[in-house]
């Protein structure tokens, strides 16, 4: 192995931990990992990928969860001629007990290349590279160990949520429970693709949006509150006394809802002006806390640029209570999927369909009220289709 | 018979005891040093989290290594963040230094908290994807080797999130990152007419093109398509549905760089990242030109932005014209949008800076 991969070897140097070292580690035990290393070196030399389009491979009963992958130089790299990937649904919040992780490692050492992603950008455990005949036995052992596959293709993708109430004082909703509950409810939608395209659900406990739900999910749930930020004036003064630059924080409040009265040593706050952006709370976690009338804002449509450009999610329900068993949100999801399924073209994401048919039509068909919170500002043109 | 649809393990079975006891009852937290969070519960219990950078593309032995540390100091529990960092959780303060010592022995950095450059969200690249216009793991490694000090410290005006996607499918929140590197093709698809008729459905292929560049082959005897090259913007959408139309090209492929996106709602609403460099060639293994731009922009931001200002907030305040001036990055005609939402970016006021 030494000296055979001069370009990649360069990436063993430097302070940041090296993925090349990791591939080499796996390559000591596993021939597929060794071929993977060589294919990667060849790509570095040729400046081109050596992977081909995937064929349809998978496990019995599922339409997704496995990405088919073939090398374009099978004679040279027989061990990765087939190099399929399994997406494994992680526990909500990416919490693990080590025995569960070890089981995955053992199974993957037995059936696959020994290389993984912890995690993929959607949040799955990615088991990188195995042969077709290993897929089913690998899957069987994974389910024995309590794990199941995630979504791929035109299906519901693995749902993810932020760390939430497990370790964050700002969680306005139980992101882990919602993630788990919806995942269990929609197993069929995850495993059997049948929609126009992919669909993603992501859940963040507060407007900091640590799982980037607003940018990456077709259905975005973000925790929020309707009453007032709770202020501990004593703790505010304590910050200031310790030299904290409170003016710099107050100045950046987007709504001018807070102001610092230096004379009295009081943080003035107008609850009805606050748009709950989290800025002041983030900066003074010991003194400021979100309100107590908690729920979520529901937005739809976020996606990456392919095909018609990128979208951020749009507000459709300003406030929804989120209590188990989450019937309201499930019902809304089912209505949206039916509407999209009925009206969407192949490879048309929800946002693109809404743009084509109009947000007005969407709200009407789903049965949601038009409220000003849904838009930044009303239209400026006179072209209203009154009869549509 | 194999079981199906069992779903993931219940997260409740994975939580450390201190978290079970204080679930939903956290009061506040502090970052006691870069990479170490202290969460305090309503009842006064304290939880320490040590955040550790990972290369993400890891072997099973790497996972076993970190499991060993978690067994020793965290009662066999650990978690990952949405940006691939590992978090070791413990209620024993004295364990924090020991955990740090052990992860440093493994060569892993402790950091990724507060006003830092945290781990780079990224995609597969040449390691696994047919669609890749560049590698992802390699660029990330090259960038983070250079920005390492920003991971282990908290000295920036606000935190900076970087993402790398190896093609414009962008499997990652690349389009809303402070800094983003995106693989781009710059040559139209090369059509293998024989393979098209064998492998591809012609109407679907034609329909897949967002710009309508794909037409039926003019010779009715050839069951294939042609591409009007003047309409092609090298998105690769056709290749996704028709494997006989690859775009990858060693000389043409490279990366574009974007800046100023954000996801969080704090202060300004979420924003898209905007193109700052339309094209740089692939230069493996270390992509020095790319690393140079990223570092330069980061340093100009660090020097000029006000406290709490994210990259995009800073740029919007000073104006993009000023941004290009300060960074010395040339503005070209390619920076002017001519796709679907283009007109929203045209200036409709006489207010601007020189
Ligand atoms: C066959 C080649 C591809 C490979 C190997 C690949 C790999 C991946 C992987 C491993 C993930 C993370 C999955 C997870 O965590 O569950 C992902 C996510 C994603 N992929 Fe791909 N992908 C491929 C093709 C595509 C294509 C063709 C598109 C779009 C047309 C695409 C768009 C995305 C997006 C948008 C995400 C999700 C990002 C997010 O959650 O924000 N990928 N991809
Ligand atoms: C220092 C206090 C903070 C703590 C303890 C904290 C907690 C976290 C955690 C645990 C993650 C990983 C989330 C996960 O994997 O589930 C994360 C990521 C993130 N945090 Fe925070 N957060 C803090 C401050 C903030 C602030 C002040 C903001 C916004 C103003 C913010 C925005 C984000 C975002 C956008 C991500 C997502 C990263 C991504 O793109 O994946 N966080 N934070
Ligand atoms: S999104 Fe909000 S609640 Fe969730 S981890 Fe981030 S800061 Fe905490
Ligand atoms: S949460 Fe945001 S809008 Fe509300 S007071 Fe704080 S800084 Fe202002
Ligand atoms: S960003 Fe593009 S090239 Fe990279 S993994 Fe995703 S689809 Fe493949
Ligand atoms: S690369 Fe994109 S623009 Fe070019 S022909 Fe294919 S689908 Fe059309």
Description of the molecule:
The complex is a heterodimer of chains A (388) and B (354). Helix content of chain A is 33%, strand content 16%. Chain A has 388 residues and is α+β, with helices and mostly antiparallel strands. Chain A has a 5-stranded mixed sheet with strand order 8-9-10-15-16. In chain A, strands 2-4-7-6 form a 4-stranded antiparallel sheet. By secondary structure, chain B is α+β, with helices and mostly antiparallel strands. The longest helix of chain B is centred in the C-terminal third of the chain and has 17 residues. Chain B starts with 16 loop residues before the first helix and ends in a 27-residue tail after the last helix. Classes of the chains: A alpha+beta (388), B alpha+beta (354). The interface between A and B is large, with 128 and 113 residues. The structure holds protoporphyrin IX containing FE (2 copies) and iron/sulfur cluster (4 copies). The site of one iron/sulfur cluster has 12 residues of chain A, from loops.
Short description:
The complex is a heterodimer of chains A (388) and B (354). With 388 residues, chain A is α+β, with helices and mostly antiparallel strands.
């Amino acid at each position: 192995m030494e000296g055979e991969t001069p370009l990649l070897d360069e990436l063993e140097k430097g302070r940041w931990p090296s993925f090349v070292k990791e591939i080499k580690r796996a390559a000591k035990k596993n021939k597929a990992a060794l071929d993977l290393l060589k294919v990667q070196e060849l790509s570095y030399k040729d400046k081109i990928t050596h992977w081909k389009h995937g064929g349809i491979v998978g496990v019995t009963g599922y339409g997704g969860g496995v990405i088919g992958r073939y090398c374009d130089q099978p004679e040279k790299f027989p061990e990765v001629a087939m190099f399929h990937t399994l997406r494994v649904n992680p526990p909500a919040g990416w919490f693990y007990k080590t025995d569960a992780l070890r089981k995955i490692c053992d199974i993957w050492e037995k059936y696959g290349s020994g290389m993984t992603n912890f995690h993929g950008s959607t949040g799955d455990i990615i088991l990188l590279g195995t042969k077709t005949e290993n897929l089913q036995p690998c899957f069987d052992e994974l389910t024995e160990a309590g794990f199941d596959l995630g979504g791929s293709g035109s299906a519901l993708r693995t749902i993810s949520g932020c760390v939430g109430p497990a370790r964050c004082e700002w969680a306005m909703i139980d992101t882990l429970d919602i993630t788990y509950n919806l995942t269990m409810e929609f197993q069929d939608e995850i495993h059997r693709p049948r929609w126009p395209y992919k669909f993603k659900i992501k859940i963040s406990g507060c407007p900091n949006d640590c799982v980037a739900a607003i940018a990456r999910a077709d259905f975005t749930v973000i925790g929020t509150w309707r009453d007032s930020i709770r202020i501990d004036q004593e703790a505010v003064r304590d910050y200031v006394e310790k030299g904290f630059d409170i003016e710099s924080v107050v100045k950046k409040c987007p709504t001018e809802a807070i102001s610092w009265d230096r004379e009295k040593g009081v943080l003035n706050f107008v609850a009805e002006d606050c748009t709950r952006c989290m800025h002041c709370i983030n900066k003074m976690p010991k003194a400021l806390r979100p309100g107590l009338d908690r729920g979520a804002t529901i937005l739809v449509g976020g996606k990456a640029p392919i095909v018609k450009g990128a979208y951020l999610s749009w507000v459709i329900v300003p406030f929804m209570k989120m209590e188990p068993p989450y019937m309201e949100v499930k019902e809304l999801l089912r209505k949206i999927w039916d509407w999209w399924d009925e009206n969407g073209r192949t490879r048309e994401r929800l946002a693109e369909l809404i743009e084509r048919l109009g947000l007005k039509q969407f709200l009407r068909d789903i049965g949601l009220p038009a409220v000003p919170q849904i838009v930044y500002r009303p239209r400026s043109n006179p072209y209203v289709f009154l009869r549509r | 018979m194999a079981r199906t649809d069992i779903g993931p393990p219940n997260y409740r079975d994975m939580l450390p005891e201190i978290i079970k006891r204080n679930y939903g009852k956290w009061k506040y937290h502090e970052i006691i040093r870069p990479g170490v969070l202290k969460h305090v519960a309503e009842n006064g219990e304290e939880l320490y989290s040590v955040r550790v950078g990972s290369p993400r593309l890891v072997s099973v032995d790497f996972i076993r290594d970190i499991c060993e540390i978690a067994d020793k100091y965290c009662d066999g529990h650990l978690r990952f963040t949405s940006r691939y960092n590992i978090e070791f959780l413990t209620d024993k303060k004295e364990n924090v230094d020991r955990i740090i010592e052990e992860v440093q022995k493994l060569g892993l950095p402790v950091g990724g908290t507060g006003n830092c450059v945290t781990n780079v969200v990224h995609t597969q690249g040449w390691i696994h994807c047919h669609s890749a216009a560049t590698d992802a793991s390699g660029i990330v490694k090259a960038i983070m080797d250079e920005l390492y000090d920003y991971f282990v410290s908290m000295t920036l005006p606000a935190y900076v999130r970087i993402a790398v996607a190896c093609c414009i499918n962008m499997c990652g929140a690349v389009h809303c990152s402070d800094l983003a590197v995106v693989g781009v093709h710059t040559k139209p698809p090369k059509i293998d007419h024989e393979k098209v008729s064998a492998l591809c459905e012609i109407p679907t292929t034609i329909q897949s093109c967002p710009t309508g560049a794909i037409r039926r082959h003019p010779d009715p005897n050839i069951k294939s398509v042609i591409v009007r090259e003047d309409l092609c913007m090298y998105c690769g959408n056709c290749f996704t549905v028709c494997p006989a139309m690859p775009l990858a090209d060693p000389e043409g492929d490279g990366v574009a760089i974007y800046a100023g996106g954000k996801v969080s709602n704090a202060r300004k609403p979420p924003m898209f990242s905007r193109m700052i460099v339309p094209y740089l060639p692939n230069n493996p293994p270390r992509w020095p030109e790319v690393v140079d731009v990223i570092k330069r922009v980061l340093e100009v931001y660090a020097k000029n932005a006000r406290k709490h200002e994210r990259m995009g907030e800073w740029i919007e305040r000073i104006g993009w014209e000023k941004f290009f001036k300060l960074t010395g990055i040339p503005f070209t005609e390619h920076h002017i949008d001519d796709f679907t939402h283009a007109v929203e970016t045209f200036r409709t006021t006489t207010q601007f800076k020189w």
